[in-house]
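Person: I have long wanted to understand how a fold can be written as tokens. Underneath my words sits a plain record pairing an amino acid chain with its backbone structure tokens. Those tokens are not coordinates but codes from a learned vocabulary of shapes. I should like you to check that the lines agree and flag anything odd. The protein I mean follows directly.
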Amino acid sequence: MSGTFHKQVGEYEPWLLLAVAIGSEVVATSALKASDGFTRFWPALIVVAGYAVSFFCLSLALRSIPIGIVYAVWAGVGIVLIASLGWLLFGQRLDIPALAGMFLIVSGVVVIRVFSKAASL
């Protein structure tokens, strides 16, 4: 049974690595705003560590997922998450065109992941 579980998890491992890459990039980018131009030590340290983790996990995901797919998902989801955090944490406004654009980005990521044969492992 554990062999079957490991095989099932293994099939999704590149996508989990991509999710970690996206999450750490979002944390790093949020800390970049908080670092105030790298004048605040702890936020600046989070930036460096977050981007290091992000690019490391991104490089591992690229072993199995084509680069165009990885970059489209990483950038698209990252844009939506950063814009959402900007709204929640920093009071940045999102108007109707921005929300529509983010909806289209998420839709594109879903289409790639669900329907594209290029995204197949």
Q: What stands out?
A: The mean pLDDT is 90. The helical segments are 2-34, 41-61, 67-90, 96-115. The two ends are 23 Å apart (CA to CA). Residues 2-34 form the longest helix (33 residues).
